[in-house]
Amino acid sequence: MNLKTAYEPYFKMGAAISRWNLHTKAHTDLLLDQFNSFTCENDMKPMYYLDRDKNKENPDKYDITPALTFEHAIPYLEFAKENGIAMRGHTLVWHNQTPKWFFCQHYNEHFPLADRETILKRLESYIKGVLTFVQENYPGVIYAWDVVNEIVDEGDFRKSIWTKTVGNDFFIKAFEYARKYASKDVALFYNDYETALDWKRDFIIENVLKPLMEKNLVDGMGMQSHLLMDHPDLNDYRKAVESYGALGLQIHITELDMHNADPSEESMHSLAERYKEFFNIYLDARKSGKANITSVTFWNLLDENSWLSGFRRETSYPLVFHGK
Ligand code: GLA
User: Fold this and answer.
1) From CA 201, how far away is CA 115, in angstroms rounded?
2) pLDDT score, position 127
3) What is the per-residue pLDDT across 239-274, written as a single tens digit (0 to 9) for each?
4) Is the shortest distance between the CB of 300 and ligand 1 below 6 Å?
5) pLDDT at position 324
6) Which of 255, 273, 277, 304 is catalytic?
7) Atom 6 (ligand 1) nearest CA
8) Phi and psi at residue 134, in whole multiples of 5°?
């Protein structure tokens, strides 16, 4: 039995992969054996599509139609197409991993920020370019896109270069453009972390999802789910799954891992038990119809490749596979 077969009646099972994974046969074998979906960990983020050299060499030509490159994305898309495995697109719009020059006059980070109209035109052109490239060359490969990532922070909309240049409605615009250019069978997601915190859950529902739903611009809520051994509380998490589910949107668990720095057998057992509790929440929600969870993705394949060891500065064993 493998993960994808075990959960097939309920949701897709996925993992994030990096370039290293993609070029290591043992890792792609593991991916194809256990999973039926994957996410590109980094190479399909804005900084990798925006062609720095072309835009900077010819800023007038590309002022409102930024030049794009797909050299980083293509190997993943080819792999997905060749192997018949589905992909989540991650992520079109984010404040991180997006170059400052994209927001500046003449694509020059030493110049002032460009005005709202210019940034919106660049945004539309960029979203159109990415979606069109993927849909024309790899039709049917990407079933869902994280259109916008992480715009809520500290009780409010996050202050970022996006809100500074465009304003708080930049996410609505991004979804409008995504809806305009996405194929009908591609689902559009809002994605965020700590989505089980009371205030954040309520803020996202009221100020992000409902306004998007009124305009029929969003299909799903992405709960990243970077978990700890003692946080979040299971009841809070269940409540969040059911609250997003009650909106009638699809739910994807998009970046599942559980930080755990203790590799002892006892600790691994506790990790497995806690994972079981979360998967019970997913299955209960799905079976009872309280939340339409359609995809669950681990954030990388193997403990050895998890971002958490770097981020937390202690070796982490947060996933369900290691040592391959
Ligand atoms: C966020 C992003 C991911 C990734 C992680 C850290 O959750 O959505 O793309 O960068 O941080 O690895």
Assistant:
1) 32
2) 99
3) 999 999 999 999 999 999 999 999 999 999 999 999
4) no
5) 56
6) 255
7) 307
8) -65, -45
pLDDT of residue 323: 79
Q: CB burial class (10 A; 0-12, 13-18, 19+) of residue 96?
A: exposed
Q: Are 209 and 218 in contact (CB under 8 A)?
A: yes
CA–CA separation, 299 vs 301, rounded Å?
7
Looking at residue 153, its pLDDT comes to: 98
- CA of 301 from ligand 1 middle (Å) equals 15
Superfamily of domain 3-312: Glycosidases (3.20.20.80)
In angstroms, the Cα distances linking 296 to 90, 167, 169, 242, 257 are 14, 32, 29, 16, 11
Question: What average pLDDT does range 95-105 have in this prediction?
Answer: 98
Ligand 1, atom 12, residue with closest C-alpha: 307
Question: CB 277: neighbour CB atoms within 10 A?
Answer: 11
Structure tokens at 77: 């898309």
Which residue blocks in 23-73 are alpha helix, DSSP H? 25-34, 46-49, 52-57
Where are the domains positioned within the chain? Answer: 3-312
Q: What is the pTM of this model?
A: 0.98
Q: How far is CA 32 from CA 11, 18, 298, in A?
A: 16, 15, 14
Enumerate the β-bridge partners of residue 12: 295
Ligand 1 centroid to Cα of residue 224, in Å, is: 8
